[in-house]
Design goal:
alpha+beta; 7-stranded mixed β-sheet; SH3 type barrels; Rossmann fold; 291 residues; 25% helix
């Protein structure tokens, strides 16, 4: 009986431990100018300092903002404070590659599928440029690489849609000279066709005095005599409006190839250009979009 109670108590302890680990919030990660990572919890941020405690500890540390490069919060949001210090080689030559890539973002050409078929190159590059326009409006500390520059570098390196998957995101960041890469896919499918009918009434005649016994067609302001040369004709026009279903996926990778954001959203709007409003919606959800 004692063995059964002991085993039951041990099982309860394991379940509680796993539950607390599953529901525990993610830690914040501070990256210093020197490249050191500090994992714990941000308690307070003011104009010049940050209050921080290491994971599993209660002791509070005060850090200067001037010593911090960026913070990756447990929520996934990234806040950048300073550029990293430039490394110096043994020959005292400055290695500027890291500093030049810092806070720099490249947007890759989007994948595009329309009615289960690949979209045209013109449309692919248009979506890439639309994404650039939306994201760069709220760049603040971030610098977005012009899509023409991105595409030129990929072309020079002979990186195409056919061999794109042969490269890791870390390799692409290095090739493009950026810290972050945005990759996306747009899927557009035809939905239902909505029929609508409109009518137009035409009246030929002369206006008369309303007091002399008159007649007027519905919806017309002018008053007409129904005799003589007064003629009424009504035409109806039916049109079909094509509705579309649009889905957009946006993913962001950092220079280490880690996925820092990924989300798919189904557009509410039924027109063919609904991907634009969907891109804007997703952009506002990313950790690199300034609100």
């Amino acid at each position: 009986m004692k063995k059964v109670c002991l085993a039951f108590s041990l099982l309860i302890f394991i379940i509680n431990t796993l539950h607390s680990q599953t529901n525990s919030p993610k830690s914040d990660v501070i990256l210093t100018i020197k490249g050191e990572e500090m994992i714990g919890n941000i308690q307070e941020i003011n104009d010049s300092e940050i209050k921080f405690s290491y994971k599993g500890e209660k002791l509070l540390y005060t850090l200067k903002k001037s010593d911090i490069q960026k913070i990756t919060f447990g929520s996934g949001r990234i806040e950048v404070f300073n550029l990293p210090k430039v490394a110096v080689t043994e020959n005292n030559s400055v290695n500027t590659a890291a500093s030049e890539a810092h806070n720099k973002i490249a947007i890759l050409p989007f994948g595009l599928v329309i009615d289960n078929r690949g979209g045209s190159e013109d449309m692919i590059y248009k979506i890439q440029n639309d994404c650039y326009d939306i994201m760069s409006k709220k760049s603040v500390t971030m610098q977005y690489q012009d899509p023409r520059t991105t595409n030129a570098i990929l072309l020079q390196k002979e990186i195409t849609r056919e061999n794109f998957r042969a490269y890791s995101m870390e390799e692409l960041c290095h090739i493009l000279g950026v810290e972050f890469i945005i990759q996306g896919d747009v899927t557009i499918n035809k939905g239902a066709q909505i029929a609508s009918t409109s009518s137009n009434t035409t009246i030929k005649g002369k206006p008369v005095d309303p007091k002399k016994g008159v007649w007027a067609a519905p919806g017309q302001n002018a008053v007409f005599r129904p005799t003589g040369n007064a003629k009424v004709s009504t035409t109806q026009t039916s049109t079909l409006t094509q509705k579309y279903q649009t889905s957009v996926t946006m993913t962001i990778f950092d220079e280490h190839g880690s996925k820092i954001f990924s989300r798919e959203h189904q557009s509410f709007w039924p027109d063919q250009n609904a991907y634009k409003s969907t891109l804007e919606f997703l952009a506002k959800k990313t950790p690199i979009y300034a609100r």
